[in-house]
Structure formats: structure tokens, C-alpha cells
Amino acid sequence: MRRPQQSAARTEARQPHEYREPKPHAGGAQPPDFPRDLVPRHVALVMDGNGRWAKERGLARTDGHTAGEASLFDVVEGAAQIGVEYVSAYAFSTENWKRSPEEVRFLMGFNIETIHRRIDEMDELGVRIRWCGRRPRLWKSVIRELEIAEERTKHNTRLTLAMCINYGGRAEIVDAAAALAEDVRAGKVDPKNVDEQLFASYLDEPDMPDVDLFIRSSGEQRTSNFLLWQSAYAEMVFDDVLWPDFDRTHMWKAVESYVSRDRRYGGALPNIVTADPASPADTNAR
Ligand code: FPP
């Protein structure tokens, strides 16, 4: 099939005021007025429930995936409206190769087509597209489309959309460990210097901040191997809505829940600040 031409690659960065405004919600919903500093920097999405949505309508599973595309890009528009900086979308896991060959083939082609179709509007919005995932086994044509998108949008600063394709949290950690071990063997890294910060620099996207808000649609309550390292202290929101019925208003509702929560990172509330922060007293509330 002959595909529509995309705009030529930009040769220089634009100023943020040159990005287009996010598209309004189809139903006219307006974003809640979140205090800017409470908005999650990084929202992770497990786009689950496409198959069940299709089954309920007597459609093929793949029709559910097709319908789910609009949900993802509506969430991105809504994320841009409230100032989210990173959205990570779990679009194909390292375990999804276990699905039927027909569905795998569909999903490979679907990811290529989706990225190709959406690149102009994402670029105009100021979205930087990144790919997280393993290279081996992934179709070369998918990698090519992802690399074109990465190159084309590399200067954009409004929001980063991480397309996680052939991605698995354990795979990412194992690959990082292997690369680090290589560097230790080559004498580039002293094992004494290995700490969390150094280890994280070996992950797929070292500059990606930790996940603040982890959303999964369709009522399932598990992470399914998504962004395991980055989600260590993520706030989890499980929404019963099936992914094709999910839109930015569901994401905003999740953000409302997120802003109302206490994130303690292993500390305790209320946090009694001692005179010498280097030697906290036993009086800290537990
Ligand atoms: C994890 O559940 C969910 C995913 C890896 C998402 C799959 C997404 C799609 C198939 C297509 C969506 C793509 C777009 C662009 C809308 P799982 O089913 O792999 O894990 P589980 O077996 O633990 O439920």
C-alpha cells in the first residue's frame, strides 16, 4: 500500500510557542485546574482491554487495537494540556510474542502505521518520540519507523512519548546488567562505584524520570513487567474502563487521585525535620 508522504524533517529546533495547541477533547471536557507542581511528570500507560472491547461487540481482537489508537493519542493531547512531561505507552511487550502469529503480525504492522500516521501531529504538538525496547526479534520495519520518528522529533521539548515496543522491564534490567558487566570487565567501571544512579544510566532511556503515575485500564491489577525499575515508587491507578473507551478524562481522574495521595518514598508523615539532617533523631513519626 502506498502511504502518504510525511513532512520533511526539521533542520532546527522550534521555540515552545511555535508548537500547536493541544486539540480540545471531543466532548468539550476541560482539564481540572491542577497546581502545576503537583502534576505527575511521568505517566505510564498499560493499554489493556482491547481484545475484550472487541469481543463484546462481536469484532476481531485486532479491531480493538485499532480502536485503541485514538485513546492513546487523546491521552497525549490531555497530558500536554496539564503539563505532563513523559507519557510511556506499553504497545508490545517481550512476552506478547506468545500471542497468535496473526495478532503479532497485525501488531507489528499496526505499530508501523500508527507511528507513520501520527508523526506529523505529534511533531506539531512538540512531542519527542522515543522507543524503549529490545532490538533482537523486533521487525526491522518497525525499528526503521521508530528511528525515523525519533530523529524527526528529537528537538521537541513539550512532552516525550516513549513507545515501548518489544519492551519488558526484566529484559531492560538484564540488558543493563549485562552492559554494566561488560564495562566492569573492560576496566571502565570499578564495581565499588556501582550504585543505583550508575546502574540506571545503563537502562534504555537513562534520562527518563521515574514513573509518578502508573495507569492500567480494563480492571486488571498488575504491572505485567512494565517499567519495573522506573516504577519503584509509582502511584498505581487501575481503571475498569477498557482501553478503547479510555480517554484524557480518565487520565485526568487518575491524576486527581494522584494529587490527593501522600508519596512518602519510605519516609514517614509527618516528617519532623531535625536540626542536623545528617543524623535524624529517633523522634521521626513512624
Ligand atoms: C500488557 O498486558 C499490555 C500490553 C503490553 C499492551 C498491549 C497493547 C496492544 C496490544 C496494542 C496497543 C497499541 C496501541 C498503539 C493502541 P498483557 O496482555 O501483555 O499482559 P497480561 O498477560 O499480564 O495481561
From TrEMBL:
Chain segments carrying region Disordered: 1-37
Cofactor remark: Binds 2 magnesium ions per subunit.
Active-site residues, record numbering mapped to chain: 48, 96 (proton acceptor)
Keyword Ion transport attributed: no
Positions of Mg(2+) binding: 48, 235
Necessary cofactors: Mg(2+)
TM spans (from-to): none
Presence of the UniProt keyword Magnesium in the record: yes
Biased amino acid composition, Basic and acidic residues: 11-24
EC number: 2.5.1.-
InterPro entries: UPP_synth-like, UPP_synth-like_CS, UPP_synth-like_sf
Binding site for substrate: 49-53, 61, 65, 93-95, 97, 99, 216, 222-224
UniProt-listed Pfam families: Prenyltransf
GO molecular function: transferase activity
PROSITE patterns: UPP_SYNTHASE
Keywords noted in UniProt: Magnesium, Metal-binding, Transferase
Database matches in CDD domains: Cis_IPPS
Enzyme class of the recorded protein, top EC level: transferase
NCBIfam families, A to Z: PRK14829.1, uppS
Record's subunit section: Homodimer.
PANTHER family: DEHYDRODOLICHYL DIPHOSPHATE SYNTHASE 2, DEHYDRODOLICHYL DIPHOSPHATE SYNTHASE FAMILY MEMBER
Function: Catalyzes the condensation of isopentenyl diphosphate (IPP) with allylic pyrophosphates generating different type of terpenoids.
Family indicated by similarity: Belongs to the UPP synthase family.
Name listed for the protein in its UniProt record: Isoprenyl transferase
Native organism: Streptodolium elevatio
